[in-house]
Amino acid sequence: MKMLKLQIDGQELQAQKGTTILQAAKSIGIDIPTLCHSENLKPYGACRLCMVEITKDERTRLVASCVYEIEDGLVVKTNTERVKKIRRMIIELLWPSLTGLAKEYDVASSRFWPKETECNLCGLCVRYCSEIRKLDAVYFKGRGIDRELAIVPELARECAFCHQCHELCTGGWIVYHSDQAF
Amino acid sequence: MPRLKSPDDLYELREKLKQERDQRHTCVTICSGTGCIACRSQDVVAEFEREMAEKGLEDKVALRRTGCYGLCERGPIVVILPERICYLGTKAEDVSEIVSETLVKGRHVDRLLYEDVETGQRIVRLDDIPFYRKQERLLLEANSLVDPKRIEDYIAIGGYSALAKVLLEMNAEAVIEEIEKAGLRGRGGGGFPVGSKWRTTRDVPSDPKYIIVNADEGDPGAYMDRSILEGNPHSVLEGLIIGAFAIGSQKGYVYVRQEYPLAVENTEIAIKQLEEYGLIGKDILGSGFSFTVDIQRGAGAFVSGESSALMSAIEGKVGEPRLKYVHTAVKGLWDKPTCLNNVETFANVPLIINNGSDWYGRIGSDNSKGTKIFSLVGKVNNTGLVEIPMGMSLREIVYDIGGGIPNGKKFKAVQTGGPSGGVLPEGMLDIPVDFDRLEKVGSMMGSGGMIVMDEDTCMVDTARYYTDFLAHESCGKCVPCREGLRQMLRILDNITSGKGREGDIELLEELSEFLQEAAFCALGSTAPNPVLSTIAHFRDEYDAHIRDKRCPSGVCKDLIAYQIDAEACIGCGTCARNCPVDAISEVEGENTVYEIDQGKCIKCGNCIDVCPPKVEAVVKISSSVLLESA
Amino acid sequence: MYLDEKGAAGAKTADVLVIDDEESMREGCHQTLEADGYRATTAQDGRRGLELIETMHPKVVIVDLKMPGITGMEVLAEISKIDPTIVSIVITGYGSVESAVESMKIGAFDYMTKPFGPERLLESVKRGMNLNEERKAAAQPSISPEAGEAVEGPALDQQTVALKSLELLGQYYSLGLDKRDFLDELVNLETEARFHAETLGWIKEREKILREVLQNLRVVDEVIAQYEYEKSAVLQVMLEVQRRLNWLPRHALKWISRRLKVSLGRLYSIATFYEALSLEPSGAYLVEVCTGTACHVRGAPQLNATVSALLGIQPGQTDSNMLFTLKNVHCLGCCALAPVMKIGEQYYSNPTMKKLEGIFDSLKREKQDYAKVEVA
Description:
Chain B is of the alpha/beta class. Chain B has 26 helices and 19 strands.
């Protein structure tokens, strides 16, 4: 496998082609916060918490580190002011789900209206049920700001007896609702 | 139907069809685009058929249902060729007069001709009408020459000769070079150079390759693609086949909104005819090149206009955008190299091949070559589709072609680029309309929606309108787009209902910046444009809503009220009869006057519309005034 | 004795009999069924299968349609003669939907297309066992109201309903013909008739619904065939089904899911994602008010408020008579005629309040007249 050279937060490292920035950072002990990511599932790139600043050919931009695969000569910064600003906004928007992170990023409260459900729509349960359980009992219903989580009525019974996705849940919706639907 | 096995077969057929056409010198064309059909142009067609049969004119005069003529507000449009006599607003009952006067005696029916607003003069020829005079209708002109349901019409006017030229006289490289030299840029929104897109797709060493026509016209207030596909589907398909040849694809898709049933139908018919003539299928015109096309109906999702989301939809999935760090030209439909262009883009291709890149390069401005079709709508006198060379100023489009603002109202802004674009105020009317200039001033070309707004349009309401649209049309996958737009909409809802607070504008700006930086796809990152551009140019309107709880344009429902001036009211009761919720009733007293129950009123404004012009007893007031007096 | 017949030796009865000439199929079904607690037995051809049916009276018979000798169809026909309470399920090859439909017509309860998994088998057998019980209960002659009420209960399948209707009819007529004591019996008969008429009506209603469901499923099958069973055409299939049925009933989704082997979860998320698809039936007239930008600036909100007030429903709702559904659409592409409303195929440009009243009234009348004609 081809090895590529890159720099993350000032540290030089080598990693295999096909590695994501998130994985590469982890390998040298740099922790990038995530919400919708799980090592056992396909990268999804939806929560944007893991965004980092990359510089390539003198062009700097923001990318989601969980999906962006490393390139030779890439310079990555995981904790710049620009990145922190985004994370702080996400913490506020998903308030109070990310109170653990809130402290680290110095967010004491949210300026926004609270979400209507405890669900963060991170999709971990949906993807778990689809990719690993291969059942598709949980699905995203609707789109845009009306998007919500729902359980397929015909499969509610199996859902109530499975619970395998519970430990992935970031907001609590599936934990509360998987039994009730049946 | 004979299969065409070589270019000679095609040319032979064309000559034959041309002769047939020439036999009947005069041709009555009746617009059968959706706009005119809505105004019952079908009845006009039927009446012409009947009248002409009765007068025995069928052998001398041809009758043709054509695609859209563009001046949709004045439909149904009847144009008589070759003189190009143009009758507007034609009704079935006008037909016998047209037949006996114009077709038999060669005289005009004056009352159906265009009347110049200023001089009161009647204009006979289509091309002399101000709406058409400044246009350069390279694409739309063919709409009047063909019946979209007949491939023979398209072949007769030289259709598919560009395809024959490409297949037999050029190689793929030469085609791409020609498109590059012409400087053709994508008409779908971003304005990406078409030639280089084709080259990238062609150069990916992976097969098969796919090519897609994006006809999922999702911009609210725009219908250019609809009109082309309805009026001249073969021009798009010819461009598509040429594109397929250039990138080395054997399979194409037309992804068309199912809300456009006529476009779906005409495209289906066109594909069937192409199969019958052997212009798609195996070994096209004996060149060895094979290609097939399928129609895919879009199920109604604005986000499907995003190329990767559209591909998801074709694969039968929820139309969410995909990770695009690898471009769809490399990994698109079913992870294969895929080239996607918009309807209008493909329609330009045969023109360039037929007339050469040098000719094409002379039309338009520096970096924006060719013409662009706009849907000029909203508060403007001549609404419809206009095709202009790029680089023309907004002022020329709105005033010279559009005829200015109706009812003596004042111009306020023009919105371009749809939900991803922005508003341009009076001071920007002189900028030339092309890809780069529009982007520079905070809007964009988009697919070609151009909505004119007058003093009665509220800019905060406009921002709220687009944000609401996007909040519901976003796929809802990523946090910035879903949660960010949710909050932006809440804030705008508050402002427009009089609950805005100091600091709201700054919060909107902060959220906007966040969306631009962090959203997953272009829908999200461009979503703040309507908000940002209205704040930039019309901040005073925001302030009026937030500080004075007042909507200066009298639009925002919660900030206005309707009242009847008892002094002026003549007690005719028209308003009461036109109130859908029975909120208007007679007041007991000496004279009969009416009053509005504010608790019941839904502010539909019917009362103010129907109050006789000389009376004008119903007035719109700021609701804060009502509160103070109460 | 057939040596390869599993479970046949010694046992006098069985729950399920599997008739298939293919050994692996017999073996697989047998194992799956036994593991799930059923008493299963197998036969390798139609002749032997029929013998076992006579002697063992299984509750459910699974039979392969394509077999040498006596065919599956012939077995099916025989089963209903031997014991109409036996529920038969057929196995068909991939793509032979027609023969499956044919088999349903002569009494098969369900069919499974090869290849199918254990879950599919167990699900079908389970439903078959339930049905068998229902049929057995229904086969008890009943003329008392108490027994009649036992008919009520869980949803019945089409065969049961048809069977019960026939039985009830038979009882009704036989009562009238056999009795000599005319006057007394006439009173009895009247009471009976009234009761049976009620039950019949109730069953007919069910049957009507089931017929409708069946018809819908046929539509789905036609559409899927039109798209050549292509999994990736699922969105196009859903659009076409929506166009033909005017909505996507749950049974249609289930059928699509089973036929195209696409998970129900995915179908639900597609159905709720796209504007054109609906999980609710819409009214006889779909009233679409355009909310495109051109319409918005030229008074679409006012038009919307008026239409909404006149129909007494909000956008997205259907009135209680199932006559009108009001929908806001993003752009009808008729921007020059703004504001635009569309009902069916007809577009209306900036209709006044009076015009709207006229349009809605005439549509209401049209529907009433239509209903009258239907009744007559």
